[in-house]
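Quick one, tokens below:
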């Protein structure tokens, strides 16, 4: 087999049907072992796309297994601001681009297209680390015009994905935030967060941190297929318990709710989270923007062909016949009878388990601007 090129399938102004000819991009199962996506369709902004074709030689050959590659980015700024009315934060930090967890439903996959990469297997295997992020964070927090507000970590890609063990960027960011006594919210599936309990427990005592643990299913088989390199559900419950025991406020996040696959587990997920020590809960419906929809459809056809049509019918039902509606106020929960039913079930179960409360706001009054490394300290501080 050999790669070749052909005319573009879309453009920046309007990609063509992203679900066309996914089979031309599908890799053999042995090549993508332990990965979520089955294909590596070219990013939507590229002028040419690469497809796999037979080279004509009648020679059997073993194709190489995809390995994780990490490159380095040196950004000019590290805090990203947003004005989305349906997000509870206005700023975030991402230590990495791409995510090795490989969750097939990940709404962040399309961001890899801006890098000239695929939202499919590239998103899981061609990762980007930002080692300068802690230094830049120091500088941005020290700026005279900076106004303190909680920073979110893990809103795009997981700050505790496997490569964090080697690179340690998330821990370095937390050290900056602890020193500055700056509030932070963290969302993760990763057990590596327990490595940083020393920092998190310090910040928790001052009301400066809370954590959301994403729990999508209690079925280890489904989890391994859907989130191939994320910790098993039982491990995530252990993380909730350990954080709670250390005094860190934890929210169990039943996200995303996948129609026809995980929706029947909603009450069980909340109960398991509550028993592990979670203090609050939240939920988000499955979101399939841009390239995610064809990747998810392809995954369904491979792993759950008997349910694929029913799952996608439910998705379209919640978005006015489309597979995704990006409108604020609709994109997170969907609309219609099914979406309303899930919302009512969540509300009822969360109330019964005491998870329907708001966590206390993170403190802002303790903030002290850091002195960036290399700067002269104030004599009178």
């Amino acid at each position: 087999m050999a790669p070749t090129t052909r005319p573009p399938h879309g453009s920046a102004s309007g990609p063509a049907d992203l679900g066309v000819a996914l089979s031309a991009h599908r890799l053999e199962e042995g090549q993508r072992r332990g990965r979520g996506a089955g294909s590596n369709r070219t990013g939507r902004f590229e002028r040419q796309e690469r497809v796999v074709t037979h080279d004509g030689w009648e020679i059997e050959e073993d194709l190489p297994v995809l390995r994780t590659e990490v490159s380095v980015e040196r950004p000019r700024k590290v805090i990203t601001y947003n004005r989305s009315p349906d997000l509870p934060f206005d700023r975030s930090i991402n230590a990495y681009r791409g995510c090795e967890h490989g969750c097939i439903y990940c709404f962040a996959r399309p961001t890899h297209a801006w890098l000239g990469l695929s939202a499919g297997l590239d998103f899981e295997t061609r990762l980007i680390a930002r080692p300068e992020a802690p230094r830049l964070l120091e500088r941005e927090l020290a700026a005279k015009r900076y106004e303190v507000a909680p920073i979110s970590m893990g809103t795009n890609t997981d700050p505790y994905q496997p490569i964090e063990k080697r690179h340690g960027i998330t821990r370095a960011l937390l050290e900056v935030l602890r020193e500055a006594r700056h509030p932070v919210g963290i969302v993760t599936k990763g057990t590596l967060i327990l490595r940083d309990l020393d920092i998190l427990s310090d910040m928790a005592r001052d009301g400066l941190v809370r954590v959301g643990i994403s729990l999508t299913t209690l079925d280890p088989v489904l989890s391994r297929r859907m989130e191939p390199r994320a910790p098993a559900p039982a491990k995530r419950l252990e993380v909730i318990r350990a954080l709670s025991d250390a005094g860190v406020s934890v929210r169990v996040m039943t996200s995303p709710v996948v129609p026809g696959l995980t929706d029947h587990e909603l009450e069980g997920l909340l109960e398991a989270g509550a028993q592990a020590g979670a203090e609050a809960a939240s939920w988000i419906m499955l979101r399939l923007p841009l390239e995610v929809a064809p990747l998810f459809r392809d995954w369904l056809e491979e792993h759950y062909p008997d349910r694929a049509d029913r799952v996608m019918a439910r998705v379209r039902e919640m978005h006015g016949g489309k597979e995704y509606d990006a409108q604020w106020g609709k994109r997170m929960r969907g609309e219609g009878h099914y979406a309303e039913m899930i919302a009512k079930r969540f509300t009822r179960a969360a109330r019964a388990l005491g998870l329907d409360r708001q966590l206390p706001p993170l403190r802002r009054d303790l903030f002290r601007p850091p002195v960036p490394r290399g700067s002269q300290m104030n004599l009178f501080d």
